[in-house]
Amino acid sequence: QTVVTQEPSLTVSPGGTVTLTCASSTGAVISGYYPNWFQQKPGQAPRALIYSTSNKHSWTPARFSGSLVGGKAALTLSGVQPEDEAEYYCLLYYGGAWVFGGGTKLTVL
Amino acid sequence: QITLKESGPTLVKPTQTLTLTCSFSGFSLSTSGVAVGWIRQPPGKALEWLALIYWDDDKRYSPSLKSRLTITKDTSKNQVVLTMTNMDPVDTATYYCAHRGPAALFDYWGQGTLVTVSS
Fold this sequence. Notes:
- The complex is a heterodimer.
- Chain A is mostly beta strands.
- Chain A is 0% helix and 51% strand.
- In chain B, 0% of the residues lie in helices and 50% in strands.
- In chain B, strands 2, 4, 5, 6, 9, 10 and 11 form a seven-stranded mixed beta sheet that branches.
């Protein structure tokens, strides 16, 4: 069974920069996995942030960016705001099936 | 403006079949490249992708749940239905439906519906 792994939790100071990663048990994550990133706040539905590695939706703040780094998909937040405190999920494509990561709880402190 | 809304029972008994409906507006499921998917989230746990149906009626299922899931669409009613058989307490979760456009996956989500499995 394919497992997608994210950091369980990260802490960042307001105004700082943080990178969340997304790894695949099958090996290096490449563009063909079409990494997606979602943000979820308590009691809310997930909100899409990034699709196909690095593409932003019209509503995605400029401080969010996606990339591939060291064989993983990555979501970088630059100039973190208090409202960025949330759970973040990545989603990878495996030839007709999709698998979410376990999520990263981002604390802004 | 794309919107989606899930509906169905809030409580089902173990071994029963769950039927959920996703009613949507702002797009057509007959448009090339468009799809609707289902995702669930047990309380306090991570998201899990379940199924996806494309505009051309192509269907994809989570390998681990494939034997229990069926996804169908009614284009004229703008609805997608997910059925899950043999429900178990571990299937207690919030179930979401989401839109897939030609370029982006799951860009719009419904509010979710909590389904509890209990006798």
